[in-house]
Design brief:
Order of helices and strands: EHEHEHEHEEHEHEHH
Helix content: 25-40%
Strand order of the largest sheet: 1-8-7-6-5-4-3-2
Number of strands: 8
CATH architecture: Alpha-Beta Barrel
Oligomer: single chain
Number of domains: 1
Bound molecules: ribulose-5-phosphate, fe (ii) ion
Structural class: alpha/beta
Distance between the termini: 26 Å
Low-confidence stretches: none
CATH class: Alpha Beta
Radius of gyration: 16 Å
Shape: globular
Mean pLDDT: 98
Length: 227
Amino acid sequence: MSFDRSIKIAPSILSADFANFGQEIRAIEAEGADWVHVDVMDGHFVPNLTFGPAAVKAFRPHVKTVMDVHLMIAPVDPYIDAYADAGADVLTAHVEAGPHIHRTLQAIRGAGMKAGVALNPGTPAEAVAHLLDLTDLICVMTVNPGFGGQKFIDMTAKIRSLREMIGDRPVHIEIDGGVDPSTAPLVVEAGADVLVAGSAVFRGGSVDAPQVYGENIRKIREAASTA
Ligand SMILES: O=C(CO)[C@H](O)[C@H](O)COP(=O)(O)O
Ligand SMILES: [Fe+2]
């Protein structure tokens, strides 16, 4: 997985049909997804529960692009090897998930994955100031994590600060939560390059009507290109 700053749309399968992940992943990729975003929730760090490493491993053969795994779990460290074995390309941990995010990022890279760090809306950009050389992606949450379909929280000032802090390092800025054609240009203009979108991609479509996913992805991409 090589670094580039072009806009990438990463549909979140949190909004897919949970009885049909394989087909859903193949459909969004066929319809133009650049990455596939996988939300892991533990019912403890966030008030919702999704799936664990065995399910993520089962998704792997269906993902031909980049499997971007967003861990909303605490603790993280005991599970890093399991997600490496599951085939995650990017593994993102929350800075709020424990006292040793520096060690966690080292361990993620040590296990052969790209290391991501996520920031809740209430966490300032400065929380990652000493982590920039250990991270490949900073995920700026634009909702409080736990659920799809929530209203976008404006974090453009934080995105601008991060873009300045990152300088010319090869670090992606990913935006997660409430991204749709109306919010995408704001975050891209502020410096984001990876746009996660769950409800805005899956809304109105299905594996029997996958062209709707394609139209939804295209609308986000077109809106982002106006930034
Ligand atoms: O991490 C997440 C929630 O915690 C999801 O990735 C995010 O909410 C995407 O869903 P939507 O685009 O519907 O907001
Ligand atoms: Fe996510």
